[in-house]
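PROTOCOL LOG
Step 1. Enter all chains and additional molecules of the complex.
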Amino acid sequence: MPVVTPRFIDHAWRRGCDFIVIDLEDSVPQHLKAHARTLVKDAIDKVSRGGAEAFVRINHDSVQADLEGAVWPGLKRIKYPKTEYGQEVRGLDEIITRLEHERGIAPGSVEIDPGIETAVGVVNIYEIASASPRVREFGASTGGYDFSRDLGVEMFVDFDQFIYSKGEAELVARALGLGVRAAPFVANTTGSVSDPNRALNQARAARLCGFHLGGGGLNPAVVEGHNVGLTPTAEDIADARWVLEQHRALAAKSETWAEIDGRVIDDYEAERARDTLEWADVCAQRDREKSEAVARTRAAMQASQQQ
Amino acid sequence: MPRHNRSWLVVPMSKPGQIAQSAPCKADVIVLDLAEFVRDRDRPAAREQARSVISTAIATGAQVFAQISPQALDADLTACVWPGLTGVVVSRAESAAQISAADEKLGELEATRALSPGAIEIVAAVETARGNSDAYDIARASRRVSGITLGRADLVMDLRAEPSNEFHLMQYLMQRLIIIARAAGVMPIGAWWRAPDRGLLATPTNTYEAARRGRAIGFKGAMCLRADQVEPVNRAYS
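Step 2. Run joint prediction.
Step 3. Record the structure below.
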């Protein structure tokens, strides 16, 4: 959300998000950029009040000034658009390291998310993703307006037009052991960014495909769909427990797999089941943290109104 | 000599009984596995009987490969490299260094066991992200490398079905592997299925469809996990 629009920033904590991206880039008009930088420190506090992590998206061409405005306690991650070379990421790392030191932020805690939105970025994707230990999660921002324009690709088609660049990004993320931000292909032929049903379907497909990380959205209407769709259901959890039960029975035998009710039970299926149960725990924990944060903020607001 | 091996049937080294059952299915290659379908505790016994199991498999008329683990390179190769063996499949290959190590050990064994130098081939199964990332170096790490395959990458990398029923990332990995194989001058060997099948349960009909698609995008042959998958693979790649 644009940092210069107070009604978005002030109410962000009520949206139930896991993270909020405070934007200095495309949603902020050129003549407001300098003013926008002065608002970030306060915005980080505001958007985190519901338990969300605060990210800041900076501009490709004013890195120094934007980082000075953005790197404050409470910041979780810098999103850097249109990355093309590893050197750019190392440059960001140096500035962030200095600011962490000067501003009492735990060293190395601020992450960098280098966005891949150009053809040059795809070509240099390995050096970009491996340029700094601050890069902990990675994925190509496919489907983005900038990326589609740079590649000359149409955006709203009914087939997966980004197989290569998405594949490159995901293979690199996996080879480097980074968090993988990827998603199965679900057609969006209308260009809608606020359809709650579409958000839910997309997030469900991602969960069934084994993914945990959402890519975020542009409208509060999609938040619930993303949260619900990416959370294991009661059926998922029951099924995972069943798989692990079958797998325990298999361990005593010399066969490495068994066919039970038309399904394969083996170490791979057991691993998937364990992953589902662990992820269900993480989701439950995150939901608790957020509702506690919201309750604290509500109580503090009531107290200040009564004074 | 260029060959066209269509079907590669994987049989656990610890289950020699399955070889006799598989013989009528006419696989071009029998892959005797020590890595994927044999439990850790059963491996020493499986290595003990490897030489005789290999002979049994050769008697069916198929070419015979042994599937070995890079983590047990010396033990597995020492157990399997005997006259009659065509090659080894290195499961979960991740680096050119592993292939060089296998090359060296194979050279030693060829010298002491009356095999002609360089006779034993290597097929590298790149099943992890690291292995796929380094696949070109892996394919060129030794002149023995005759083929490269994704093996069970769908499971090792946990690639699940997209709404389209394609396994996530698989189209990219398959095309990448085929380009690398052609560039390195080795055979790209297919082995994948579309959801809802897993390789172990793929029906003959679905196997045929997957193999036809595989042939169309450039694979030369495919791995099979069940005897009834061999005929459709042979048909699709003939």
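Step 4. Note key features.
The radius of gyration of chain B is 16 Å.
The interface with chain A takes residues 12, 14, 36-39, 42, 129-130, 132-133, 155-164, 168-169, 171-173, 176, 198, 200-201 of chain B (CB under 8 Å).
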